[in-house]
Amino acid sequence: MHDEAFSYTRQTLGWPAPPVSRGPTEAPAGGGPCEGDVEVPGGAFQLGAPYGPGFIHDNEKWAHERRVEPFAIARAPVTQAELAAFADDRGYLRRELWSDAGWAWREGEQALHPVHWRRDGAAWLRRDFDRWVPLEPHRPALHVCWHEAEAYCRWRGRRLPTELEWEVAASGEPTADGRLSSRKRRFPWGDEPPGPERANLDWRALGCVDVGALPAGDSAFGCRQMIGNAWEWVADDFLPYPGFSADPYADYSQPWFGTQKVLRGGCWATRARLIRSTWRNFYPPHRRDVWAGFRTCAPR
Question: pTM above 0.85?
Answer without folding.
Answer: yes
